């Protein structure tokens, strides 16, 4: 199995992933150079015209090794978020990488665009990571967080890996790792530095 390194500029971080195919979902006219670009609009650089809120996507299960969601999730209708993330999971191969960048949910960058309807903050990705109280609400397909960064006046970026069902022993370990994550930050405010160092 051949692998390559992918540099995520927003995080100044390198990830090891399998070679292509890689998907740039909602690429607009700014498709990543090494990706297959998908968008609901026919723009320069778009390889496949498809509305990604229309699920399923025209791809086989586990047909790509990486998905980029660069400033797309904030445009996805909130009630479709779980189905959308589950579709990303379906299309990615096991241990595939999902990189999601979005304006921080309470920032001017989020609210300035009249089409932004789905705000994400630093706790939102944990709804997709087994082993914490937020995941237990909807129990979607399972991911693990490899990197999480954010600035409250800028963007949030998260790199997630597709995982399969975890064992009860592993879930206990994960729950211990994420024990500080609570719905609505009931106990203490989220600390930006803490969130950066533990993933």
Descriptive terms for the model:
single chain, 199 residues, alpha/beta, Rossmann fold, seven-stranded mixed beta sheet, two-stranded antiparallel ribbon
Query: Major beta sheet, specifics?
Result: 7 strands, mixed
Average of the residue pLDDT scores? 82
Helix content: 10-25%
Q: Indicate the CATH class.
A: Alpha Beta
> Could you give the distance between the termini?
26 Å
What spatial form do the alpha-carbon principal axes imply?
globular
Structural class: alpha/beta
Q: What's the count of strands?
A: 9
Uncertain runs with pLDDT below 50, 5 residues or more? 183-199
Q: By CATH's scheme, which homologous superfamily applies? A: Vaccinia Virus protein VP39
Strand content: 25-35%
Number of domains: 1
The radius of gyration computed from the alpha-carbon positions, rounded to a whole number of angstroms, is: 16 Å
Number of helices: 5
Can you tell me the CATH architecture? 3-Layer(aba) Sandwich
How would you describe this structure to a colleague?
This protein is 18% helix and 29% strand. The chain has helices spanning 81-91, 108-111, 135-138, 168-177, 192-197, and strands at 3-8, 13-18, 22-25, 36-39, 48-49, 64-70, 92-103, 143-150, 155-162. It is globular, with a radius of gyration of 16 Å. A hairpin with a 4-residue loop joins strand 1 and strand 2. The chain has one domain (3-197): Vaccinia Virus protein VP39 (Rossmann fold), CATH 3.40.50.150.
